[in-house]
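User: Here's a structure from my thesis project, written as structure tokens. My advisor, Dr. K., wants to see whether a designed sequence matches the one we expressed. Can you design one independently, without my sequence as a hint?
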């Protein structure tokens, strides 16, 4: 349409440049006697309207999402986790004692889920077992999502999958296409090595693709693989991941169809990405590498909490002007001017995001990470409850954790029409990514099916700073 109207636009501009005040007066008083000018002006106006709608971003809706909940037989208590580690006979007494201290201070409960490859005796860390774990989690989440939304497989035009450490050939996205026989011209993407914040990166990638491809659905799948990422060495910086990570995954359906607004839960408002990989300390804070005995694992540096705090500040500084009320922005700007320009030694002003955001879903990388974010954003226990309860019930399920937190908020009946939800994720690199959703309608827990519904009345629970582990 734009190319078709370009010649008419040129003609209109030429004619408009020749108009005089008398012509405009005649057009106003005697439009029937100036049909040529009227047609030209109408064409010009129509062109402007078409250009406006062509450049206007498409609205992206979150139709629904599903989080996978394994069978009860996959539950792995902290005591059982230590018994498994001890039975492998590869960990020293010092390593087992260190793992015990991590579990005691982790904020993780007794019902998080382990993988079949780790729970069986002897353990199986093969590629085949890792694939079986991914198939169980991914297919389980997608099956539930399809049942909830009723979307036809042929209508899914975009597929984005993220799994940081497990990157098989064919890819996980190809595995999904094969299982569900998705159409041949589907736009599929498989993101690897992007850490726990890759789930929000996947959302932004799907959003960008939906801006280009009209009348389409995007399926986003976010997960991690515990079987393939188990560390069987004695380097302390690498032992932490064994204690914190558990099985989990989520599937999300996005749409740019206007007709889907009334069927959807949320509208995507903003997505902000911050990448501090240019800084060496940030880049090396989370690193997959071999230890001194050539055993592969993921190393977490002592600088991780500080790096996460710095990256968080950079991200919320970019997010603030988009969501904060003007009063908060002015106070923040005044504080910044006094510090940067007048060199005044005053405390940095932290904007009150609670004035703009009702619900917060913070990546549960561990108790220390949640404590840092709570302090940085000045959040209350109520705001942190979905994150802390997700860490307690499901542990760190990597990039999918944010969706278990949103499911918790829905199961509690907290989502009301017009509410805004902030999802905040951290990942290797080091990255901090945030997404803001706008609730299109209130969520009635009675109509929901998610991993919390059957046990939501048992939460929240008190989680002590230290929970003794005896095995």
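Assistant: Designed independently from the structure alone:
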């Amino acid at each position: 349409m734009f190319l078709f109207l370009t010649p008419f636009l040129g003609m209109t501009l030429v004619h408009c440049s020749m108009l005089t005040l008398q012509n405009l007066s005649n057009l106003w008083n005697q439009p029937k006697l100036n049909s040529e000018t009227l047609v030209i002006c109408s064409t010009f106006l129509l062109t402007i309207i078409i250009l406006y709608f062509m450049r206007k971003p498409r609205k992206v809706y979150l139709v629904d999402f599903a989080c996978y909940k394994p069978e009860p037989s996959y539950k792995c208590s902290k005591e059982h986790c230590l018994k498994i580690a001890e039975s492998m006979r590869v960990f020293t007494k010092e390593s087992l004692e260190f793992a015990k201290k991590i579990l005691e201070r982790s904020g993780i409960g007794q019902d998080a889920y382990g993988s079949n490859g780790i729970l069986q005796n002897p353990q199986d860390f093969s590629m085949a077992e890792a694939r079986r774990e991914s198939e169980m989690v991914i297919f389980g989440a997608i099956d539930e999502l399809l049942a909830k939304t009723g979307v036809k497989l042929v209508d899914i035009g975009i597929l984005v999958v993220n799994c940081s450490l497990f990157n098989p050939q064919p890819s996980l996205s190809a595995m999904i296409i094969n299982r569900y026989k998705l159409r041949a011209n589907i736009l599929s993407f498989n993101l690897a090595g992007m850490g726990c914040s890759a789930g929000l990166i996947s959302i932004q990638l799907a959003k960008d693709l939906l801006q280009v491809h009209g009348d389409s659905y995007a399926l986003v799948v976010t997960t991690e693989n515990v079987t393939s990422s188990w560390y069987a060495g004695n380097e302390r910086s690498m032992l932490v991941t064994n204690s914190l990570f558990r099985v989990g995954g989520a599937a999300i359906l996005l749409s740019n169809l206007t007709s889907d607004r009334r069927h959807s839960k949320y509208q995507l408002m903003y997505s902000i990405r911050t990448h501090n990989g240019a800084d060496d300390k940030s880049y090396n804070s989370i690193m997959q590498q071999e230890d001194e005995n050539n055993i592969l694992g993921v190393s977490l540096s002592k600088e991780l909490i500080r790096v996460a705090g710095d990256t968080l500040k950079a991200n919320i500084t970019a997010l603030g002007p988009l969501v904060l009320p003007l009063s908060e922005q002015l106070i923040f700007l005044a504080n910044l001017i006094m510090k940067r320009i007048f060199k005044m030694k005053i405390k940095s002003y932290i904007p009150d995001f609670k004035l703009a955001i009702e619900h917060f879903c913070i990546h549960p990388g561990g108790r220390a990470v949640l404590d840092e974010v709570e302090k940085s954003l000045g959040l209350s226990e109520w705001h942190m409850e979905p994150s802390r309860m997700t860490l307690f019930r499901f542990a760190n399920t990597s990039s999918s954790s944010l969706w278990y937190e949103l499911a918790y908020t829905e199961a509690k009946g907290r989502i009301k029409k017009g509410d805004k939800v902030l999802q905040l994720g951290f990942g290797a690199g080091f990255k901090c990514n945030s997404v803001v959703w706008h609730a299109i309608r209130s969520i009635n827990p009675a109509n929901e099916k998610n991993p919390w519904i059957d046990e939501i009345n048992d939460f929240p629970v008190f989680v002590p700073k230290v929970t003794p582990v005896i095995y």
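When you compare it with your expressed construct, this may help: The mean pLDDT is 91.
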